[in-house]
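Record 1 of the preview.
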Amino acid sequence: MKQELKDLLDLLDLEPIEVNIFRGVSPDEGWQRVYGGQVIGQALVAASRTVEDQSRLAHSLHGYFLRPGDTTIPILYEVDRIRDGKSFTTRRVVATQRGRAIFSMSVSFQVAEDGLEHQFEKPNVKNPEDCLTQIELNEKFSDDIPEAFKQRSLRPQPIEMRFVEPINQFKPVKMPPHQNTWIKAADTMPDDLRLHQCLLAYASDMTLIDTAVRPHGLSWTDDNFQVASLDHAMWFHRPFKMDDWLLYAQDSPYAGGARGLSRGAFYTQKGELISSVAQEGLIRLHQ
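->
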């Protein structure tokens, strides 16, 4: 397994320190705050480890980002076992640092059941092999990347991304509020459906808030622009594999009041809708 993917899976492998309490750490990459997808993924790991019936998979999660996470100290995840029913299991997770909550999330698990089915069709877009990778895109615009981010932007990542409608994120132009991105794990994953869900939860925060910013031609590196995730909701529809290509189709129907709403849908290459996402983010322009 590639080292960058192994490091990410190790990051999601929380340390149990007491019944219903787990400890997670953050990578030392120089960021001012913890990446939101990391907290979502780790919180889902914590919740999943309190559900003994391995056949019960998460079908939905709803989380709120309360404070910026500090990358220099561990995060404690405390799980409340709210309910264990015949079909559904409910958990609540609170992530804390220095005794203060930084994130809270509710997760629901369900036994496998048959039922009525329908879905939206997968967008008709280019195949991943015909799209630029993140590194290729950054190499193309390397002259515009600030020195503080240049080395980090050109190294291999644990989750590979290929952009159907690429944009120079360091000197963006105004574009419609939608984008399509192919993603997959950088190497073969263990055969563990819960782990694949946790990794997708981690990845779901990537590029989503950017979709709400596209019509405004702003970059997250602009000094007068403040961006942060406020909440995050996710629904898992079908089993899937993170080491296969998934299309992340995103749009942003509204922005206002210093907030932007973004929606996302994950499809397999065969066209199966496997997960849906919604997020509201802070997009504050300081005068």
